[in-house]
Structure formats: structure tokens, C-alpha cells
Amino acid sequence: MLHVVSLIHDQFEDLELWYPVLRLREAGASVLLAGEKAGVEYHGKYGVPAHADISFDEIDPDSIDALLVPGGWAPDKLRRFPKVLDAVRAMFRQEKVVGQICHAGWVLVSAGVLNGYRVTSTPGIRDDMTNAGAIWLDEPVVVDRNLVSSRRPPDLPDYLKALVKLLQEKTVR
């Protein structure tokens, strides 16, 4: 069984959190939501609630197959937590799958992991991504090594196809 953690905080983009979580659960993955505090209810931009199963402190990159970062305004909050940035860096060091969509790229920028990676994001943070050393492309989904990135909600079907495919490739034993 695949083990995935998705980061959450208030003002996440509702579809960018729930579409991947539900799609991965349908594919048989165990998906936990990690927030600042376990048990806390966070709300998306459109009011959809999500409960943190675990806290950022409880994320163990050694025991998960993928880390997801949804967009919205939550990434601007998420990138302020050292434990979040540590988890992202660990996932990249271990070459484990990281998925990011829309404004989620801000978290990877703050973690300092994008240098030389081909990525996409919402065009609004293109400069942030390129200033962090990424090669930014205006495409629905970009896969580079362990990173799957996407632009915005209409790209979710392409994003999840690529994410599931990469997870399957990386976890074949």
C-alpha cells in the first residue's frame, strides 16, 4: 500500500487538496492530512473543511512514498514552518515523489529544492520559481525526476494521471 501525506492549512484550494486525496485513496493509497496541529479543522478557500490526521512534527519522510502540497493561499503559510521545509528537503534527498500544484511551488521555493528542475505552477509565481533556479514551463503538468507539478484546477486530471504513474514506477519493488 502506498503511504502519502498531504499538507494542509487554512485557505487551501479545495479542489487541489481533495481531488488528489480522493483519487489516491480510490487507487488504494493511504493518505493522511498533516497540519500545524493534529485534530484541527482547516478550511479551504470555499469553506470545505479538512481535519489534520497528524501534525507537521509527525511527518516521517522515511515512511511515506509521496508528499503533496495543494495550492491556494495555504502554501504561503505552510512555507513558514521549518518542519514542513525539512520534510520537503528530505523527500527530495530520498528522491521520493513530491506533488505540487498552483501556488504550492512557494513551499518548494522556500525549501530551496528547485534548482535545475523543470516545473510548472500558476503563472502568478513564475518569477518566484525561476528565481529559485527552476526552469518554468506553461504546461498542464510537468514531471521531472521525483517532482510532479501542475498549474491549476482544470489541470487536475493530467496532474493525477502523472502523479499516479510516477508513484507506481517508483514503488515497484
UniProtKB/TrEMBL annotation:
InterPro entries from the entry? C56_PfpI-like (IPR006286), Class_I_gatase-like (IPR029062), DJ-1/PfpI (IPR002818)
- Tell me the domain of life: Bacteria
UniProt domain DJ-1/PfpI: residue ranges: 4-165
**Has UniProt tagged this entry with the keyword Cytoplasm?**
no
Q: Does the keyword Protease apply?
A: yes
What is any one GO biological process for this UniProt entry?
proteolysis
What Pfam families does the database record attribute to this sequence?
DJ-1_PfpI
Q: Which UniProt keywords apply?
A: Hydrolase, Protease
Q: Which PROSITE patterns match?
A: PEPTIDASE_C56_PFPI (PS51276)
Q: Which GO terms describe its molecular function?
A: peptidase activity
Q: Which family does it belong to?
A: Belongs to the peptidase C56 family.
What this protein is called in its record is: Intracellular protease, PfpI family
Q: Please give the organism.
A: Sediminispirochaeta smaragdinae (strain DSM 11293 / JCM 15392 / SEBR 4228) (Spirochaeta smaragdinae)
